[in-house]
Fold each of these.
Amino acid sequence: MAETTCDYAAIAETLKTYLGLQGSPVAFRFTHTKEEIPEGMEEAPETLRHCKMIAMARNEGKVFFAPSEKHLCNGGAWSLGLRPLTESLKTGDFYYKLGKFGSRAACRRTIDRIPHLTPGETYATMYAPLEAAPFAPEIVLIVTTPLAMLKLAQAALHDQGGRLEANFAGIQSVCADATAQTFLSGRPNFSLGCDGSRKFSGIEPQEMVMGIPAELLPAIADAISCVTEAPGSVMRG
C-alpha cells in the first residue's frame, strides 16, 4: 500500500471533536538515516523515555526527533530498533527484580514475545502533534478513555467488519504494544498502559493507549462521526 498523504490537521480535528480527546493524536515515524529528518526539526532537548516523548507531543505540542542516545529507557529503545537488548532484559533479571513476574522464566517468556524492530535499523524516532507534523506519520498514537477507544474500535471495523485483537503484556505498553506492534502488524493495537508509562508520561488511571497505522487513519476518521452519532451510540449528542 502506498504511503498515506492526506489532511492530517483535518483528521486531528475530527478525532478531537468526536472523541473529546485531551491533547492531540500523536504522529510518529521511524527514520533510518539522518537525512530523512526534515530540515529545521529540533532534536529532543534531553534524554527521555519514548512514552514521555509521546506525552510531550500530545500535551505540549512539541515537534522533535530523538536518536538512540536521547532514549532513556533501554527496553523502549530496543523495541523501536534503536539499540540491542541489554543483558538484564534478555535474561529476565530486570523485570523479575522489579517484581513484575514470579520467576525469571516467566519474564523471559514474555520478553521473547515482545514485538520489536531489528536492533540498529532505526537511526531516530520523530514525534509531533498530528495536526502539526512536518513528516508523514507511520503510526498515530492516541491516549484516551475506554469509551473513546470503543468508538475507535467501531470506526476501525465500520467499513469491512470483523474483529480486532489487542496484543499486550502489561510492560512496554507505548513503545512495544502501541508502536512497534502496530508498525510490524499493520493493524491497530490497544494497550492498557504500563507502570512505567503511567508513572513517567502521565497516562491517567482512566486512560488507555492505541496505535493506528497511518494507512488506516483516513478511513477510521471518516467513520468516527457515523459510530459516535449512530442511534444506539452512548456518545450520541
Amino acid sequence: MITAYAVENGQLLLRDAIATAEDLAGAVWIDLCNPRPEEAALVQRALAIELPTREEMAEIESSSRLYKEGEALFLTANFLYGIETGDFASAPITFVLTPAALVTVRHATPKAFPTFAARCQRAPGLLASPDAAMLHLFEQIVDRLADILERVGSDLDRASTSAFKAADAKLRATDRGAALRAVLVTLGQVGEITARASETLLGLSRILTFVGAEKASAIRKENQGSIKTLVRDVRSLVEHANFLNNRATFLLDAVLGIINVDQSGIIKTFTVVSVALMPPTLIASIYGMNFEHMPELSWTFGYPLSLLLMVLAAVLPVLYFRRKGWL
C-alpha cells in the first residue's frame, strides 16, 4: 500500500490511490506499507532510486543498512511494534531520504507512524521538507519509546511490590507460588521489551550518526539543530533502558532467592520428618522379624512398650532440632 503526503497552500493532501508516477508529484512523504512489487517499482521510477527488498532490509551489516547512492540516503534499523496488542516484535524499516521526498518502506506498523500521520493533518508544517519530515518522524518514534519505557518502569514497580508482599505475607504456599510466578512472567516481558527498545534506540543512534556525517548535503541548515536534540534524547533513553534492565535483573535475582528460600524450607521439613521417622522404623523393623527366640514377643506389655519406644524415638529428634534452632 502506498500513501503519499503532500502540502499545498498550507493544507495537507493525502493520497492513497496511487496509480501512476504523476500521482506522486509533489509528495513530501511516501509511505510504503507491505508494498507489492509493482508499487515499489512505481516509486522507484518516480524518484529514480532503487528500494531495498525485504531480504536486503533484514541484513544486519552496517554497510547494507546505512549507505548513500547519489543524493539519496538509505537508512535501515529495527523498530519495536505491537506493544498495544501484547504481540510485540521488531521489524526492519527503511528510510530513503531524497531531495524530492522521504520514502519509508516497512512491513510492520509501529504506533509512531499513524500517530505522526495524524499530527501532520493538524500541523502540515511538519512536512515542510523531506528532511524535516524524517526528523519529526524520528522525534515521534523517540517519544513513543519514552512512553514504552515509562510503562515498563510502572510494570517493574508493580512487580516489585507484588514480589516483596508475597515474601512477607502469611500466604498459603499455592498463593505465594502463584504471585511469584506472575512476577516472573512480568519480568520476562519487561526484559524482552527493554531489549527490543534498546535495539531500536541503537539503530536510531547509528542512523543519526550517519545522517550527522552527511548533514551538510542532506539536511537543511534550519533542521540541523534537531539532530543534536535527537542524539541527546536517544542517549538519555539508552541510559534509562540500561537502568531498567539492571533493575529487572536485580528483581529477578530477588524473586529467585525468595523461591529458593521457600524450597529450602520445604526440603528441610521433609528432611526432619524423614530423620524423625527413621528410629521408629528401625524399632518396627526389629519387632517385625520372625525369629523363634525373641523374648519380648511373649511379654504382656511388649506391644505398648514398642509403641512407646517408637513415639519417643520420633519426638526426641524433633525436640533436639528445635533446641538447636533448626526448626
Amino acid sequence: MQKKTIINNSITDPNKILPMSYLWARQHYKDGISNNWTPEEISMQQDVEQWRAKHVLSEAERRMILWNLGFFSTAESLTANNLVLAVYRHVTNPECRQYLLRQAFEEAIHTDTFIYCCDSLGLEPEEIYTMYQTIPSIKEKDDFVIELTQSIFDPNFSTQGPENVRRFLHDLIGYYVIMEGIFFYAGFAMMLALKRQNKMVGIGQQFEYIMRDESIHLAFGCDLINTIKAENPEIWNSEFQQNVITLIKKAVNLEKRYAFDACPDGILGLGPKQFCDYIEYIADRRLERLGLTKIYNTENPLPWMSQSTDINKKKNFFETRVTEYQVAGSLNWD
C-alpha cells in the first residue's frame, strides 16, 4: 500500500480532511484562530497625536517608522502571493491546506494593517508603497526572496522526483525561514522598542500581533519543511545543507544592512549593532529548527522580544494592558 505523504499525495482526496495524518498542522490552525485580530480594533488616536506633535518623535524615529511601514507593506503582499499562488498548489495534504487558508487570511489582515496605519497617519501612499523600489536595502531583500522562490511559480513545475522535491524545499526555506523568519525581525525589534517607551503604541501593538502570527507561520513552515525532509531523506544531503546555510548567511547580511540603513544612529539607547546581534541570534534558532548547527553563537541582546510572541501571558511586563486573549475583540483593558 502506498504511504500517505505531505506532498505528491495521490491516494488521498485533498478535500477529505479526516482522518488527519499531521496533527501539528491542525494545532497551528487552532493557534492561528486563538490569535485572531483585526487592525481596526486597535486605537490609533495616540499615534496620530504623537505623529503630528513636533517634540515626541525624533527625526531618526520618524524615518525608521516610515521605512518599516514601507518594507512590511509590500513584503506582506509578496508573502501572500507566494502562499496562494504557489505553496498551496503543491502541498496536497488537506489539514495543511486548511492551515494555509488560515495563513492567507492572516496575510490579508497584515496588508490591511498597513493601509490602516498609512490612512490614520495621513502618509503619502506613493512614498510608502514604492520603497521596495527606491530604498536599496529593502529592494535587495525583496529581490533575494523573489529569486529564491522562482521554481514554484513556474506553471510547469512539479514536485515529482527527488530533484524537484529538493527545489521545492529550497523555495519553502526561502519563503518561511528567510522571508518570514529572518527578514521581518529587525523591523519587529525596532517598532516594539518604540512601543516599550510608550511611543506609537497603536502601531506597536499591531506589529506585536503580526509577530505573533508570524511565529505561528514560521512554526508551521518548519514543521512542513522537516516533514518533507523526513519523508524524502535522500534530498537532505550535505551539499544541500551547505547551500541552505549559505542562503541564511546571505539573508542575515542583507537584514544587517537594512538595520543599519533604517536605524543608522540608533533609537532609545539601541543601536544598529544590537539589532544585528539579534538577527544573528534569530538566525541560529532558525538553523537549529531545521536540524542544522548554529553558526553565530550570539547571545540574545533583546530578551524582551520573546515576551512579545507569548500569546498566553497574562500581562505585558512593560504595560498595564491585559494582552492574553482568544480573539482580539475579547481583550480587557485596564
Amino acid sequence: MNTPQARPLQAWIDGVGLLGPGLSDWPGAAAILRGEAAYRPARTEFPPPQGLPPAERRRATAAVKLALATGAQALAMARRDAADLRTVFAASSGDAANCHALCEALASDDRLISPTRFHNSVHNAASGYWGIATGSMAASAVLCAPHDASFNAGLLEALVQLSTSGEDVLLLACDTEYPEPLRSVRPIADGFGVALLLGRAAGPSSTARIAVDAAAAFTDEPAHTLAQPELEALRRGIPTARSLSLLQRLARGEPGRLVLEQQPGQNLAVDVQPC
C-alpha cells in the first residue's frame, strides 16, 4: 500500500523588516547583503515604539521596540494591516536587560519587584504590546527553543500555522543583549530583530517562495555562512541573526536549497525560490 507523502510547508514572503547592529531597515540591509553597500558596524538604534499610549510607550522594553519596528516595516512593504493578521513571536531569552534588573532586585536586601518589571518579564510581553499598538485581536503564538534555535522554531511554527489555518502569518523574532554578569555566560552581542510576513499565495509584493519538506526538515549538513567576515560575525553573535543567510538569499534573489543553523547535527533545510 502506498503511503501518502506529506505536503511541503510553504509560504510566499510578502514583507520583510530588519533592525540590528549597523542595519536600520530592510532596504538598506538588502543593499549591504547584495554587496552594493559597505557594512559599517554600529550599535542597534531602537526607535520610539509607535502606536502605544504614553504609559505603555514609557514601559516598552528593547524587545518590544524591536518587534514593533520590524513588524511595521514588514507590514508597510506588504501594504497590509495588522488588525486581522496572525502573529508568531520567537525569542531566545525575552528581554535580557529586564531579566538582569529582576535578578538584581532579588539579590538585594529588600527583594521588592517593580510591577512594570514583572509584567515585562513574561515571554509574551512583546505580543501583548503588539496587540495594544496595532489593535490586533488575531491569534498569537509565543515561543523559544533551546539555545540559538528560536528563529528556526518560529519559522516552522509560522509555516505550520499558515498551512493549517489558511491565514497569512507575521513572524517576529528578536533577541536583546544581557548586561554583565549574565553576559559572560550568555554573550549576545546586541539587539537584533527580523519580521517576515508569510502569505499563503503569491501576491504583488511577494519576493520569494520558501518551502520546508516536512518529512526531511532537519539535516546534519553544515549551515550556510556569509562570505563577509563582519556579517558572519554578526550572524554568529546573536541568535536571531542566524536568519541572515536566509535574508541574503532574499536580497540577492538566489534560488536553491539553504541550510539554516539550529544546533549541531540538526540544522533546518529550506528551499528558496525568488518570485
